[in-house]
Amino acid sequence: MKRVFGVKKDKEPPPSIQDASDRINKRGDNVEEKLKKLDAELSRYKEQIKKTRPGPAQEAIKARAMRVLKQKRMYEGQRDMLYSQTFNLDQVAFASEGLKDAQQTMSALKSANKELKGMMKTVNIQDIDNLQDEMMDMMDVSNEIQETLGRSYNVPDYIDEEELMGELDALEADMGSEADGIPSYLQPDKEEPDVDTEFLPAAPTGNTTAAQGEDEHGLPTVPRASLRS
């Protein structure tokens, strides 16, 4: 059967944009090489024309240079055509790559959306609220435990205002005495000022007290003469 009808050949896949672009670029490189050779040949003819006197020899060189210049113009046209084809292929390639990126982005978004929906089903707002309430209750219990453990012993529960003011006055006095850097309990006792006994009144006797009388507090009055002396 194979000999009669033959074997069906598999169709070759169509060339991709990259394959076509690579092929055209390769042709463009070949044309560029030919143009470089023609430019070098034209430069050589130009030097020969400068060195040759006008006449048949110079005309022959000009004719060869004209032929090379026509070839250069033809290759330049081919090069421009190939560049235009490459430009069109690049535009199509950019558009194709953009569509592929868009497809991948859409696929990634759909997959992420599906995962998010599945995750949202496992999350319950009420469970989160209950968990927050439990955490707040646990924090309150923890604070109560800390306060209970930090309770002091043998500390009076009530202190009146007079006792408080007395403590503050004593503290202020201690701070004033310690201003010089020496604690109050290390400071020497203040000496009583020397008082001359001749300026003091004489001790009253019983008769004197009766004669002088008493003041409003029941104490004997001191004579004015004694104070002036």
Instruction: Give the strand content.
Output: under 5%
Question: From N to C, what is the helix and strand string?
Answer: HHHHHHH
For this structure, the CATH topology of the domain at 15-122 is Helix Hairpins
Oligomer: single chain
What is the straight-line distance between the termini?
Answer: 165 Å
Mean pLDDT: 76
Question: How is this structure best described in words?
Answer:
The protein is mainly alpha-helical and 229 residues long. It has a domain at 15-122: Helix Hairpins (Orthogonal Bundle), CATH 1.10.287. The protein has seven helices and no strands. The longest helix has 67 residues, at 56-122.
Features:
mainly alpha; Helix Hairpins; disordered C terminus
What topology emerges from the helices and strands here?
Layout: H1 2-5, H2 17-51, H3 56-122, H4 125-149, H5 161-177, H6 206-212, H7 224-228
